[in-house]
């Protein structure tokens, strides 16, 4: 896989199709962050909505 790492988006989720395997960066130009909570109060309440499973 020829991954173009976006050095502005760090990522350690190896299971994502956009993860650059040799580096801990995302290959997307931008990501969408959302939440699954009605009133998020901690980082665990947020989600990368750009995630695509490999």
What does this 3D model show about the protein?
With 54 residues, the chain is an all-beta fold. It contains no helices and 4 strands. It has strands at residues 6-10, 25-26, 33-35, 46-48. The strands form 2 sheets. A two-stranded antiparallel sheet has the order 1-2. Strands 3-4 form a two-stranded antiparallel ribbon. It is elongated.
Task: List key phrases describing it.
two-stranded antiparallel sheet, single chain, elongated, 54 residues, mainly beta
Task: Briefly characterize the structure.
This protein is an all-beta fold and 54 residues long. 0% of the residues lie in helices and 24% in strands. The strands form two sheets. A two-stranded antiparallel ribbon has the order 1-2. A two-stranded antiparallel ribbon has the order 3-4.
Q: Averaged pLDDT, please?
A: 95
Major beta-sheet overview? 2 strands, antiparallel
Summarize the amount of helix as a percent range.
under 10%
Return Rg in Å: 12 Å
Strand line-up across the major sheet: 1-2
User: H/E series, N to C?
Assistant: EEEE
Estimated structural class: mainly beta
The best one-word shape is elongated
Number of helices: 0
Query: pLDDT under 50 segments (min length 5)?
Result: none
User: Which range does the strand content fall in?
Assistant: 15-25%
Strand runs, count:
4
Distance from N terminus to C terminus (CA atoms, Å) equals 12 Å
């Amino acid at each position: 896989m020829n991954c173009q790492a976006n050095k502005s988006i760090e990522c350690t989720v190896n299971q994502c199709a956009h993860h650059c395997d040799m580096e801990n960066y995302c290959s997307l130009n931008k990501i969408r962050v959302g939440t699954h909570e009605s009133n998020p109060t901690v980082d665990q309440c947020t989600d990368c909505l750009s995630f695509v499973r490999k």
